[in-house]
Specification:
mainly alpha, single chain, elongated
Length: 143
């Protein structure tokens, strides 16, 4: 995968993991309500219909949990790739920007503020570091 593509894919994977977690937590809240209220109603009325809604919710929860786990695994794999790429970059402010942006998930604004640099300088440092990484990788593949 091209250098920039790996970094962008990590950003997409991080967003997918966050969405999967939100979906799981929302379903879990619904399941708590279904389990507490409807399951007790089913016990007292002896009807199977409500019990099946509890089972359906459990299946939905399992599926959401699997999606979350898959998203976490994908993000971790991409983070390993990104770490290896960042390790190839020369020691510079660009390398620090890449680490904070992609490994810590900070926005350019957040990392610029913490590093006491301008946002435009943070963007330039990121872009320069990406170009340096691309050149390093190109050299390695040519050799």
């Amino acid at each position: 995968m091209q250098t920039i593509a790996v970094f962008e894919e990590l950003q997409r994977a991080r967003a997918a993991r966050k969405r999967a977690l939100e979906e799981f937590e929302a379903l879990k809240q619904r399941a708590d309500g279904v389990g507490a209220v409807k399951y007790s109603a089913a016990k007292s009325c002896n009807t199977g219909a409500t019990h099946s809604s509890v089972e359906s919710m459990a299946i939905l929860l399992d599926m959401a949990h699997e999606r979350f786990a898959d998203a976490v695994n994908k993000e971790c794999g991409l983070m390993k790739e990104v770490m290896q790429l960042i390790d190839l970059a020369p020691m510079s402010i660009g390398r620090v920007v890449l680490s904070r942006r992609y490994l810590l998930g900070q926005s350019i604004t957040e990392l610029a503020e913490e590093l006491d640099i301008s946002i435009s300088y943070a963007h330039r440092a990121r872009n320069k570091a990406m170009k340096e990484l691309a050149a390093i990788l190109e050299k390695q593949t040519a050799a």
